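Researcher: Let's try something more involved. This one mixes different molecule types, so please make sure each is placed in the same coordinate frame as the others.
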Amino acid sequence: MRYIPMTEHDRQAMLASMGISSVDELFADIPEPLRSAGDLNLPPALSEAELVRHMKALARKNVNLEECVSFMGGGAYDHLIPAVIKHLISRGEFLTAYTPYQAEISQGVLQSIFEYQTLIAELTGMEAANASMYDGATALAEAALMACGATRRNVVVLPENLHPEWREVCELYLKNQDVEIQYVPYDEETGTIDHAALQRLNSASLACVVVQQPNFFGLVEDVEPISDFIHQAGGLLVMAVDPISLAILKSPGEYGADIVVGDGQSLGNSMSFGGPSLGFFATTAKLVRRMPGRIVGETVDGDGRRGFVLTLQTREQHIRREKATSNICSNQALNALAAAIYLSLLGKQGFKEVAYHCLQKTAYLRSRLLEMTPFRLKFTAPAFREVVVAGEVDWENINQRLLKEGFLGGLPLKRYGMPDAALFAVTEARTKAEIDRLVELLGGMS
Amino acid sequence: MMNKTGVPLLFEISTPGRRGYRLPDLDVPEVPLEELLPAEYLRQQEPELPEVSEIEVVRHFTQLSRLNHGVDVDFYPLGSCTMKYNPRVNEDVAALPGFAAIHPYQPEETVQGALELMYNLSQYLAELSGLHSATLQPAAGAHGELTGLWIMKAFHEANGEGHRNEIIVPDSAHGTNPASAMMANYKVVEVPSDGRGGVDVEALRKLVGPNTAGLMLTNPNTLGLFDENICTIAELVHAAGGLLYYDGANANALMGIVKPGDTGFDIVHYNLHKTFSTPHGGGGPGAGPIVVSEKLAPFLPGPIVVKQGDRYVLKQPEKSIGRVKGFYGNFSVLVKAYAYIRSHGAEGLRQVSETAVVNANYLMHHLKDLYDLPYNRHCKHEFVLSGRRQKEQYGVRTLDIAKRLLDYGVHAPTVYFPLNVEEAIMIEPTETETKETLDRFIAAMRQIAEEAETDPESLRSAPHYTPVGRLDEARAARQPILRWRKA
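Model: All components are placed in one shared frame. Result:
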């Protein structure tokens, strides 16, 4: 086998040194009827060349985003990815390491996580961040559970304009912990949370209110009144944020958020059909010991040299077992590393530019659509990187026609109960020419 | 390894005005910011991102990488983590634009290759496990455990047995097992091990009952021992109306040799980042697909891929528990695991497991005279020694032995786990190591056993040749510094 260096000679020598005559002896403690030797029904082994040919053939059955221009978002975005990232995360010392349990030979991973934690804390305006969660959806579910633990209350408020998949994940995590979910509707006109409806909730039992910023429709929420409401009620403000938007939008820290989560795919990670990305998770100093997941901290060695270790581990499953804050063990470290490299390459100025370009290009698409086509906007609130376009058309059919022209159109919202609408995303990767062409094509299809 | 000069933090090398990436110029007409967003929505305090050039970023992370151990660097016998070689061709194929540059919401007809791969991977995992249907959605082993427990719960509730609220977990179980049971709101009941390292069947007999939802077990267990009573255990749990969950962390021992489904398990998770060689990336991403028996298939989280004629479509199972993660799982990890299975075939996977078991027994045989071996039987893919003797006779703890091993250029085994072995040292060599590497590890462990006797202080102060010396973990926890701050 390609990856097994043991030769027949090695095997014989090793067995002989153990006083064993055959490999079967090592399996003799397995009752005979349980052994299903050799009857696996799997396709025959491929050589490297055959494998590559096979995989390329499979890959060719997909239309990839190098072959078309994507205006699709809804939680996965076509941002520019600096070339450096893939080279650095491919270094074997990062790629082939386990969780950094032995700190003295894991300073590379540990320091990069410390830097990642700092970057996330800076972006969100929070005190501390963990080393990553599986994705934005699971991070949000764990944030809601953490809020219940911290407040000793068991009602979580989710907005109806939360990403539908994140909502589903939260429902599963929360209902199995006997947490009650109350939904707050969005205003049909603005597309943002209906503050009056929120005020009508019985506030005494609320553990937290979740706000997604920008929300599933790409619209910017007015968070201040929500923050005031939930804090007066003695609950926590949980924000699920898009990381790119944080370069421009008021930070969760500035809004007084208690727990902040989000999905980090936008930060230098490829879309890969939806995964792996990473979930980020940040909180206040007060709540840090309730956080799920790995946390890296700074310390010193015997000579006073700075070093980094996994810390506050008494929250974790391998120490606390059923009393842990979460069951999470493996996280998305390599994706978090990609995010850290992305943010350091972009830096203060470049990161602001990414957000600014998204905002301006989305505004351009919106104004061109309104000018040049009969389509209208579904909602009136300010948009960041996505816009919900409405019109009495079959959006799936429109997308099929767009695809023939080399465009991946917006996400049809039919499956979310909005048959007349589609969600278009415009990142900094789109050009004016691409936007103009899309508008032209849509104009011909309305 | 490196000389002992630390790498400064990115923030410490920041110089105003530098940048490492340039965007294309903005080519659309600009609208004043205040026309797009109300002033009160705008950020006041800007984030302190570092300002560094591309070469500084490349050197910074390259220097950091050189402070790190990985399978690519040297031996990594971390028990229960299956640190085998990660084939590079699998990285290449996962990076093909047809896999890496596809959007999860593309129309199904434009992602038929991705769906076909997921469908076939599900079939392969079902074949390996001897069970019926899979979900590829869970992002890691612990996530698979939680998914499996939610399915268990939904199944019992559908049968009018929602009162079943106890999950039985052996004292040797991975910490994720009880933690996952807690996340699913189950009560954890611990069953002790017997004198041969397996589940104490008599104790189990007393623990199962009308409240038993299920038992979580890894087999071979965390001692690396195959539980010979597995059929009796399964009968006891099933007779009580419970289900059996297989923690697949140790599946590298049994591919093509035993199908967990044949031994009575109803739900199995696989750690693709262990058994199927996808790299751990310093802690993730992994993938923890689960496979279930036919009666549990309707409860799987969705969507899953089904085949209709010659088309592959995404479908929600009929009584699905819902969704455990955004989109469909850690797809590129799935691509790598698929490639690994296709590279091996049935016979290849069997050879993987056989070789992993030979290597583990070889190490165990040549170390058991110097370190205590609590259970002296043939092991499977891993085994557990105890540093009890070194602690009692020379005041050298297992932690000291582990730290000293770092000086020999190898990663330490898993230590202080499983919890039912004092001063535990859990060693898993995997099948991808040469005999020479194994011999070098044996020599290092023998040398360390001698040092414990002759120069215990050199162990207590180890490591000596690593980029930093032994780090003060207590201080890190007492006065947490979890981020850099601008002075």
